[in-house]
Design a protein that fits this description.
binds zinc ion, four-stranded mixed β-sheet, 6% strand, 8 helices, mainly alpha, 41% helix, disordered C terminus
Length: 237
């Protein structure tokens, strides 16, 4: 498929307003299992955990990792390095090795498609899968692909995910992400996303006040704030 690559240029220091916003009202989410009316509490608040079989969770983790790797291979050859003002802007927040390695791409007249495994995941009971097409940017390992023009805050956010992938490794990242997604009331409350939002907000609020995102990520990970693989899901099989 033909990709058009814009020369990537900073557009001043504005941070844009393309921040991802929750599309789902967590209050309207309903569990697929159990389906008994008793699953509604007396005050009418639905139970918001998603219940999936452990074998299906493992499948989803594998699909997600395969998807990230495949998209990375597709976009890496046509993406460009982080250079000039963009690179200077991110210097000090991320390790030089990450900034050297990362590639960025602005899509023109096309957007990243939703993952191939969504229909299969829905069949397995996964709900409220995020619409990738409407996100400002998507990180595929060390490649950040922008559905729109690149902005500094979206770039920062995408680089936080690239740093998470680098610090945790793909296997741990995908495992904690999928389990965090199942446990969270909303995609935007997945700990790894919530952390990226918190860090990009800090970046936007205090321009030029550098901090190590990798240190923050290691702290969260070690403290168990990204979750763990041992969360007790109900096995619905
Ligand atoms: Zn994110």
């Amino acid at each position: 498929m033909p990709h058009k690559l814009n020369a990537v240029r900073p557009r001043g220091k504005e941070h844009g307003n393309s921040q991802e916003q929750p599309e789902q009202n967590p209050l309207v989410q309903k569990p697929r299992f159990p389906s008994s009316p008793d699953s509604q509490t007396a005050v009418g608040a639905p139970i918001e955990f998603q219940y999936c079989a452990e074998s299906d969770i493992q499948k989803a983790i594998r699909w997600f990792a395969e998807y990230l790797r495949a998209e990375r291979e597709e976009y890496h050859p046509i993406a460009g390095p982080l250079t000039g003002e963009w690179r200077d802007m991110m210097e000090g927040y991320f390790e030089p090795a990450l900034l050297d390695r990362v590639r960025v791409l602005e899509l023109v007249d096309e957007r990243v498609a939703n993952p191939w495994f969504y229909p299969k995941a829905r069949e397995k009971g996964f709900q409220h899968l995020p619409d990738i097409t409407h996100k400002a940017a998507v990180t595929f390992l060390d490649v950040v692909v922008f559905n729109e023009r690149m902005g500094s805050r979206d770039l920062f956010h995408g680089l936080v995910h690239a740093a998470q992938l680098r610090v945790l490794g793909v296997a741990e990242f995908t495992e904690l992400f999928v389990r965090g997604f199942l446990r969270a009331r909303s995609y935007f409350l997945v700990p790894m996303k919530a952390h990226a939002f918190a860090l990009d907000a800090r970046f936007a609020a205090n321009p030029g006040v550098r901090f190590s995102t990798e240190d923050e990520i290691r702290d969260w990970w070690r403290a168990g704030r990204y979750g763990s693989a041992s969360f007790p899901f109900i096995d619905a099989t």
